[in-house]
Amino acid sequence: MADDLKYLRALLTSDSAVISELYKDTLPKVKKFVVQNKGCVEDAEDIFQKALVQIAVRYKKNPFSIKSSFKAFLFTACKNLWRRELNKSSHWVTKDIEEEQFYIKNEDAHVLLEQERLELFQVALDLSSDNCKSILEMFFNDVSYADMVKDLAYSSETVARQRVFKCKKKLIELIKDSPRFNALREL
């Protein structure tokens, strides 16, 4: 997608206007998620910045394409980073230098694994029908069933729920049918 490439290039070239757009559109959602999950606004801002840097470094090292929207990709990266932070703080009450170095190496492996899983998800989503892509994008962006009925001209919320269920089921099948799925499961 052209917009997604625009965001990736903006991260590499430090295009402040485009990056400001990301802050304006996505950071509030990240703040809400982090605050609702045992964090504060400063934590959210740190996580958001860390996600931008990680995406830029990874793209510079090995260019990739994003099959969903860049903003959804960025939000997912932020959620994953925050969950890792919560997990780290609950498991590491006392640390010495060796434990910290081991954890950092282990965390890097988790970041790569999480990214591989996200890419597998995006490939499967890309293989879905256009209708399912629309429905799932709305579902993952917390669009209400009532709004789905209006936007997609369904007859009722029950029909919208059934479509979401069927599309999620199909997406799961596509993921499980991928050769990458078994390779990731074994890690």
UniProtKB/TrEMBL annotation:
Assigned GO CC terms: DNA-directed RNA polymerase complex
Molecular-function GO terms, alphabetical: DNA binding; sigma factor activity
Any matching Pfam family: Sigma70_r2
Residues annotated as domain RNA polymerase sigma-70 region: 22-89
Biological processes per GO annotation: DNA-templated transcription initiation
Keyword Transferase: no
Gene3D superfamilies with a match to the protein in the record: 1.10.1740.10
Alphabetized UniProt keyword annotations: DNA-binding, DNA-directed RNA polymerase, Sigma factor, Transcription, Transcription regulation
Key word Ligase present: no
Protein name per Swiss-Prot or TrEMBL: DNA-directed RNA polymerase subunit sigma
